[in-house]
Amino acid sequence: MSARSEGLEAPVLLEVKGLKKYFPIRKGLLRRVVGQVKAVDGVSFAIRKGETLALVGESGCGKTTVSRCILRAMAPSEGAINFAFEGRTVDLATLPRKRLRPLRRHMQMVFQDPYSSLNPRMVVGDTIGEPLLINGMTDRAERRRRVLELMELVGLPGAAINRFPHAFSGGQRQRIGIARALALNPALIVADEPVSALDVSVQAQILNLLLDLQDRLGLTVLFVAHDLSVVKHVSDRVAVMYVGRIVELAETEALYRRPLHPYTEALLSAAPTPVPGAVSQRIILERDIADPANPPPGCAFHPRCRYAEARCKVERPDMVEVEPGRQVACLRAGELVLRGITDMPHEAV
Predict the structure, then answer these.
(1) SS3 assignment, position 234
(2) 153 exposure class (CB count in 10 Å sphere: 0-12, 13-18, 19+)
(3) Cα-Cα-Cα-Cα dihedral of 248, 236, 63, 317, to 10°?
(4) Lower CB count within 10 Å: N or C terminus of the chain?
(5) Location of each CATH 3.40.50.300 domain in the chain
(6) CA 291, CA 117: separation in Å to the nearest integer?
C-alpha cells in the first residue's frame, strides 16, 4: 500500500483534457455523413505516477474508446492527451505517427480477452520476448533471461517457456499478457477489463497479482471495468462514465462510502454484497441507456434519474468540484452533498 499511497502525491503522468471521439454515421449510395456517434464527448482526468485510476461504466459508455485513444490505437477527434516521460511532456493526441512509435514502449496494454490476445502459433517465450526483440534486444540468451524473470514475476513456471497458449488456462494466459505488457518497463499500463472474461475465483488471483506488481514496481495503471465491485480494492480513485462523459470522479473510499451522482448510486446498488443474508436496496433504472448517436438534451441521465427536475431536461451539467478531490456532473450536486443522496426526495419530471 505504501507505493500506492505515495503515488497520490507524485507528479501527474497522464492528463486528458476535453477528449472527444466521434464516429461518422454514413448513409446512401454516396455514403454521406448524416450524423455522429459521440462515443467520447469531453472527458477530462489526470493520473499521477504510481496511481491506479479505475474507469467504470455500463457497456457502450465509451470507456474502452477512451483507453484506445490514450494509446493512439485510434486518433481522437478533439482534445489533448498529455503524457509526461523522461523529463518532458508530449501531447499524444496530435503527435505524428513517426514520433509516436518510440513512445509506445512507455505505454502498454493488458487486453480483455486472454484467448484472442495471444498468437496461438507462438510459444510463450516468443510472445513475451517479442517486445524486447522489436526494441533492440537481439541477443537470444539475454532475451531468454529477461523472459524467465518476467514469467517468475507473474507466477508462471519457467519450464512452460516453450509451450503454446492452448496449454494454459484463462488465468495463466492473462498472466502471459501481463508479463508481455511489463517486458519494456512501461510508465503506464492500460488494463482494459482484464478480468471480465475470467472465472470469479481466477479474477481474485489476477487482481491480487496486479496489486502486488503495483506495489513492487510502482506501476501507474488505468483500470477499465464495468463492475464497481471489481475495482474497489485495486484503485486509488474511480471515474464513473455514462454515455461518453464522466459523471463522477472521486477517491475510491469516498465514492463507495457515499456516492453522490444518481448513476453511481444505482451502479453500487447493483453490486453483490459479500455479507451472507444482507439485503441491499437495489435501484432499478427504468428505460434503456441513452443513444450516443442521439443523446437526450440536457443531462443525458435525466430520463432514468429518479431525482430529475424540469431543468435537467434542458441544462447540461458540467463537472464541478463539490468536495476536495471530488467532482460531480449533476445540477443538484450541492443538494446531494448537503443532504446525502439517500435522503433526496423523489421528484418526477
Answers:
(1) coil
(2) middle
(3) 10
(4) N
(5) 2-28+35-257
(6) 29
pTM of the complete model: 0.89
Euclidean distance between CA atoms 91 and 73, whole angstroms: 15
Integer Cα distance of 36 and 25 in angstroms: 5
CA distance 229 to 128: 30
H helix count then E strand count, the chain: 11, 12
In the three-class reduction of DSSP (H, G, I as helix; E, B as strand; rest coil), residue 218 is classed as: coil
Return the C-alpha cell found at 46.
489526470
Q: Is the dihedral of CA 13, 255, 320, 338 positive or negative?
A: negative
Three-class DSSP category at 245: strand
**Residue whose grid cell is 505515495:** 6
Q: What gap in Å lies between CA 56 and CA 231, rounded to an integer?
A: 8
What is the pLDDT confidence band of residue 348, given thresholds at 50, 70 and 90? very low
Phi, psi (degrees; rounded to nearest 5) at 106? -90, -5
Q: Please give the CATH superfamily to which domain 2-28+35-257 belongs.
A: P-loop containing nucleotide triphosphate hydrolases (3.40.50.300)
C-alpha cell recorded at residue 129 = 520476448
> Nearest-CA neighbor of 348 among 296, 295, 286?
286
What does the pLDDT look like over 170-181, one tens digit per residue? Answer: 999 999 999 999
Q: What is the H or E stretch that residue 53 is in?
A: strand 52-56
User: Which element (helix H / strand E) includes 38?
Assistant: strand 32-48
